[in-house]
């Protein structure tokens, strides 16, 4: 890849630690703020996925070929020493409380989750996906149990009594729990208006008090000084950084870039360190000074020549207004690619994407919509594509295609692609409305919900069934829409990409679609990478896929 990507930046002892793929895969680096230089700290065969500072020790997590079963290692003088090495398990690291370290884990064939400490003792058992999101005093872990993408419960685990304590709160989305006084805690939840807002929890009664009431999602907050916090808000995709005071509950925007995405930020006295990108600016790390508002780049990608980007909207079939990000070309009859994001409860955001950039340079417009079911637009919008409403989301893409061709898009050169859920949506379009597009690309997509729900890890099955439908209950609808059942309807060239260690959508979803179409003599090709997972971590694989997609689209013009 021509552009470096950065992940999971943390401030520690006057240095910024971060994960970067600049070596061809993800490794841990340290940037010395005073000396202004970076140093690579790890050199492993596999990818570094996360890291944590616990007292004077630095822990890292590593998975195998992108299978997401992260194992824990101690980084000691450049070498990684195994601490938790149970490769059959998914681990969800890492929280410190009262000089002990805790995490949850689950077997890849089991739906149950367990709470462990670093001595590998089983402390609690849970029937749903469970992660630690905070602590109270030196006695309790705050755990979030997920029953769907929009329905979670909070429980406490008493580390002294080794018992679970229920919290009387309703099922909603919850994140970022932090105790701030003996009797109060901050957290983010959509319990009030369907958007993720800051709330205060009374730790005696567990009542929630909304501190913000905005139609946007608060993503995170970090303490600044006294009773002030820096808050990252997702406003229809765009990031805005605010100061927020517990004195008056006012969000006051910082004079920082608001045309892209804040991927990460750290607060240090009078300085703010921000990992940022926009549609026409690759990832860079900036230093923002609170006293005078000055901004300077510390490290990252070099700037690229500016080009036009925009956010647009269109009215879909049932009068809902939907938004999309656009890489427009000011000419007539422009070949156009529609890219559908994954999730479905994810969101297209105005961040830098190397494939979009390359397609744009190749002469393609790229439109990236947030169809119904996307996050960032409230809980009700998230529910608009569940189960039998799935084809409404497909219709949203068709309406976007018509909207674009009513403009300057070439109706004879329209292309569709998507990843994960977006790949499933691409296959739905290719099998239900093949004549609407010139070619299609499916990346790690679902071809048949029945086999997907059967073969995906059991701990994910119930979560996904609440969105896609339950086997034995929604079979008629599942069979009716299945791309695999309608594969003979595909009249356009289809390119499929997958990976052997995908822990979310099994590789078999792509293999069965490819084999059935190949038997029918249809124009289909499958590339399956042997050393990667759902999210490609090795740059060689990403580069290969990008080049094949670009070559494929250009050859069809």
UniProtKB/TrEMBL annotation:
Q: Which residues form the Peptidase S9 prolyl oligopeptidase catalytic domain?
A: 359-555
* GO MF term list: serine-type endopeptidase activity
Q: Does the keyword Hydrolase apply?
A: yes
Task: Show the Pfam families listed in the entry.
Answer: Peptidase_S9 (PF00326)
Q: Which residues cross the membrane?
A: none
By its UniProt entry, which Gene3D superfamilies does this protein fall under? alpha/beta hydrolase (3.40.50.1820)
Note the superkingdom of the native organism.
Bacteria
State the UniProt keywords alphabetically.
Hydrolase
The biological process GO terms on file are: proteolysis
Name of the protein in question = Prolyl endopeptidase
Ranked from the top, the taxonomy reads: Bacteria, Bacillati, Bacillota, Bacilli, Bacillales
């Amino acid at each position: 890849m021509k552009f470096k990507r950065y992940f999971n930046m943390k401030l520690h002892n006057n240095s910024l630690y971060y994960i970067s793929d600049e070596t061809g895969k993800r490794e841990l680096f340290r940037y010395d703020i005073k000396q202004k230089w970076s140093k690579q700290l790890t050199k492993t065969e596999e990818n570094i996925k996360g890291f944590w500072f616990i007292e004077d020790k630095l822990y890292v997590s590593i998975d195998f070929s992108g299978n997401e079963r992260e194992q824990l290692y101690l980084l000691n003088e450049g070498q990684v020493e195994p601490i938790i090495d149970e490769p059959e398990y998914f681990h969800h690291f890492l929280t410190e409380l009262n000089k002990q370290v805790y995490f949850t884990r689950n077997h890849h064939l089991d739906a149950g989750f367990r709470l462990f400490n670093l001595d590998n003792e089983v402390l609690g058992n849970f029937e749903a996906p469970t992660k630690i999101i905070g602590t109270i005093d030196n006695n309790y872990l705050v755990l979030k149990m997920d029953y769907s993408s929009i329905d979670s419960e909070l429980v406490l685990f008493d580390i002294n009594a080794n018992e679970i304590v229920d919290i009387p709160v309703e099922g909603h989305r919850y994140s970022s729990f932090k105790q701030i006084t003996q009797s109060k805690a901050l957290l983010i939840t959509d319990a009030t208006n369907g958007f993720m807002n800051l709330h205060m929890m009374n730790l005696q009664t567990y009542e929630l008090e909304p501190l913000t009431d905005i139609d946007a999602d608060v993503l995170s907050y970090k303490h600044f000084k006294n009773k002030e916090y820096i808050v990252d808000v997702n406003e229809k995709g765009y990031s805005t950084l605010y100061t927020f005071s517990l004195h008056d509950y006012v969000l006051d925007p910082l004079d920082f870039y608001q045309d892209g995405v804040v991927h990460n930020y750290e607060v240090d006295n009078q300085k703010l360190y921000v990992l940022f990108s926009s549609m026409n600016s690759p990832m860079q790390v900036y230093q923002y000074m609170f006293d005078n508002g000055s901004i300077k780049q510390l490290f990252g990608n070099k700037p690229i020549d500016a080009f036009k980007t925009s956010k647009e909207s269109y009215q879909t079939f049932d009068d809902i207004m939907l938004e999309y990000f656009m890489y427009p070309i000011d000419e007539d009859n422009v070949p156009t690619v529609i890219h559908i994001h994954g999730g479905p409860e994810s969101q297209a955001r105005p961040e830098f994407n190397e494939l979009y950039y390359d397609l744009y340079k190749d002469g393609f417009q790229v439109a990236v919509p947030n169809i119904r079911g996307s996050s960032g637009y409230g809980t009700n919008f998230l529910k608009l594509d569940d189960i039998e409403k799935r084809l409404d989301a497909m219709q949203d893409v068709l309406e976007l295609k018509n909207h674009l061709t009513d403009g300057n898009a070439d109706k004879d050169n329209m292309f569709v692609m998507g990843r994960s859920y977006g790949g499933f949506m691409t296959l739905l379009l290719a099998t239900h409305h093949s004549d609407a597009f010139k070619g299609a690309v499916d990346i790690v997509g679902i071809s048949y919900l029945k086999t997907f729900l059967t073969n995906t890890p059991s701990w994910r099955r119930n979560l996904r069934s609440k969105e896609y439908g339950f086997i034995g209950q929604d079979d008629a609808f599942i069979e009716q829409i299945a791309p695999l059942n309608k594969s003979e309807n595909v009249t356009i060239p289809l390119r499929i990409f997958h990976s052997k260690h995908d822990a979310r959508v099994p590789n078999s979803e792509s293999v069965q679609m490819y084999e059935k179409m190949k038997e029918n003599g249809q124009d289909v090709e499958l590339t399956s990478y042997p050393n990667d997972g759902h999210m490609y971590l090795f740059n060689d694989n990403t580069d290969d896929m990008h080049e094949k997609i670009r070559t494929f689209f250009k050859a069809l013009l």
